[in-house]
Fold this sequence. Notes:
Layout: H1 4-21, E1 31-35, E2 67-71, H2 83-91
Antiparallel strand pairs: 1-2
Pfam family, one: DUF2282
InterPro entries: DUF2282_membr
Keywords: Signal
Amino acid sequence: xISRQRLVLAxxxxxxxxxxxxxxxxxxxxxxxCFGITKAGQNDCANLSGSHSCAGQSTVDxxxxxxxxxxKGQCKTMKGLTADEAKAKLKK
Length: 92
């Protein structure tokens, strides 16, 4: 006969196994990089100019070389820039 403790452990193990088999990740949803819309300290990763390489290191609001992931198709409605537009703006 299986002890109650083993039964509980088996159930927990099965539940964890099921949750790990098909995780829902943020990157699975359709997203795009949107430049020029971030607030200081709220960027998602490295900027175009190469002055930093990590999230949360932007120092200026709405800098054209800083980006944030947004739902695909929403960047323009947020008055953001594509990577090419941001690069062109930085060269001016």
